[in-house]
Structures are given as C-alpha cells and as structure tokens.
Amino acid sequence: MPDLDVPELDPHALFDASVIARNGRYRDVLTVFWALGLVTQLTILALLARRGARRIARRSARASAGASAVASAGDGAKDGVRGALVGCAIYVVLWLAQLPVRLAAHWWRRRYDVSDLDYLSMMGGEWSTRLGEFLLACLTGAALVAAGRLLGGRAWLALWAAFVALAAAYVLLYPALLSPRLRPLEDRVLAAEVQTLARRAGLGETTVEVRKAKERTRAINAEAIGAGPTTRVVLWDTLLEPQVGRGEIRFVAAHELAHVAQRHPWKGIAWFALLALPGAWLLGRIVRLGDPAAVPAAALVLVSLQLFSLPIVSAVSRRYEREADYEALRLTGTRGSAEALYRRFVRTSLADPDPSRLVQVLLSTHPTVVERIATARAAASRAGPGSP
Q1: pTM for this predicted structure
Q2: Given pLDDT bands bounded at 50, 70 and 90, which one contains residue 32?
Q3: How many other C-beta atoms can be found within 10 angstroms of the C-beta atom of residue 365?
Q4: Do 35 and 359 touch, CB atoms closer than 8 A?
C-alpha cells in the first residue's frame, strides 16, 4: 500500500450529531458488556485456578510423605482424560456464567433494531461453532496435561507448535465447517463480475457463495475464508438486498479478494506464531503442566495473554484492512461506491464514526468509518481528477 496524503476529516462534517451520539451510545454499551463478560471469565478462571492450586499442593504433600513412585503409562493416560474433562467443564461453566451478559447484549442489539432474532434462537444458533469450541477446549485440556507429562520442561515448545498447527488447520478447514450454511450465488452476472475482480487481483477461479444472515442481523458484511484451494468469498444475504448499490457489492467483494491476494490469512498465522511463542514459554514457566488440576490456571494464563496482546492484534488487523480497502479501490476504480458503503455501515451496523481512542486501540479491528472515507478520497485524488 503506497503512502497516501490522507486528510483528517471531522466526523461532524460527515454525519449528523444525533447519528454520532446514537451510534456512540450503542457501541459504548456493547463495550461495557464485553468488559463484563471478560471480568466474569477471568474471575471464574481465577477461582478455579486457586482451587486447582490447592489440590496440587495436597498431592505434593502426600507424595513427599509417602514412598516415591514413578507414574505409569496408565496413570498418564488417565490424567490426559482428566485434563480433557477439566477443559470441557471449564468451557461449560464459562458459557453458562457469561450467558446473562450475552443475553443482555442481544437485548441491546434488538432494542436498536440491529437484530430481530429471538433469544432462544440466539442461544441455539451457531451450534456447530459452539460444538467446535467445546471439542477444542477438551483437546486443549488433554494436550496441556499430556505435553507436561511427556516432555517436562520442553512442553511449552510442543504446545506452541500445536497451537500454530491448529490455527493453520482452522484457516484451511473452516470453509468446510461453514459449508452447510452457505449457498451458491444465484446472480450469474454478479458472480461473473466477482470473477473478473478476482482475475484483476491475480487470483484464479474463486468460489463465491452466500451466507444466510438476514434472520440474525440487518448488518451487511462479507468474508474471505480459507486459503489456497479452499478459498471462498462469502457475501451475506443482507448485502444482496435491492437497496444496496451494485457498486457497493462489487467493492465489498474486491475488499475480500484483496485479503486473499495479499495473503492476509497466512500473514495472520505468522503473527499468531510470533506472539504465541513467548506466550507458550510464559505458560510453561507459570503453570505446572502435566497435572489436570492445573488446567484452569493454564486457561487463566492463556486468556490473560490474549487480553494483553489485544493492542498488537488490533493494530495488525487495522493495517490489513487498510491494505484491503486500498486494493479494492484500485480493483474497482470507484471511490463513490466505497464511501456509500462506509456510510451504510453507519446506518445498518451502527458503526461508531468517532470512537474513543482506548476503544480504537484495544478493540477496533478496522479503521474508523471516517478514516476509511478519508482513505477513499485520498486514493481518488492520487488517481487523478478523472477517477470516479
């Protein structure tokens, strides 16, 4: 992405004060709910970790008082199963504890007409994702115990490699998990236009599908999922409504194609590997791996590390989103559709045009709407007065 002379735009010059106040209030309350969910998660994990630490202390005292014994392979297998069960139990407890916060956040979305989904459907929806998270929690619990027992002080390195492998597998396999909820794009003309954009981006034949989102939200969005042969561009059906301009749809598709062309999924894995390396080392230093009772403490450390890495992760994400925006502008050659789309985000998704600096640094994975509009105008100026 070349350096652009991006102007500083005043949000109040682009949007009404009432819109800025409404969207800011909506997003601020959702941020409070996010913080409450995080505090709940950390508190429960801290209590479980303390209980686990007491159990480890009792075991150590009994071991030192009794005859020394070498753990058998059968004991190791049993501890691995116990670790898996503890991981499963932690996931269920956290899900139940955070459910009131999720319900409150959904109530807030319904109040602002961002979603019409009823509460029962909200809890039961995305069951395949929840099942995958549950199985991952079980697997993580077992891996923490098994690595600690088999590798001792080198367990953290094996866990780091396993975490990176799981991240890569997720990128490659997620399209297959999402397939039941996708359908082909029926608009042949639009599909051909997306394929043309893919060729301009230097990509081969790319699968374009539609995700059913209308029953869950009125927000518009799209996704680029997978990598290599599993790559798909997924358009939400809310994006295909008659009131959304054709140029806006093409720009969204170009933005997602740009993510693939710029290899952002693989770069994201590389960043994850880089950040996870010291995190895994700290995990091995802080937590007594190999004991099922230490799994809650390991979960607490992992969640804390994730929290501390938020500013870096968000900054990297915003960088990649800026690159995708610029490439989409280059591929489509239109600034007007891009700006119309950004303004639509303010109306449908209630994007906050002027978020606080703290929220932007910690939680914003995209540049602000105002920054994206400024980038579009700067790119058009760079292209020359004849650009649309």
Answers
A1: 0.87
A2: very high
A3: 12
A4: no
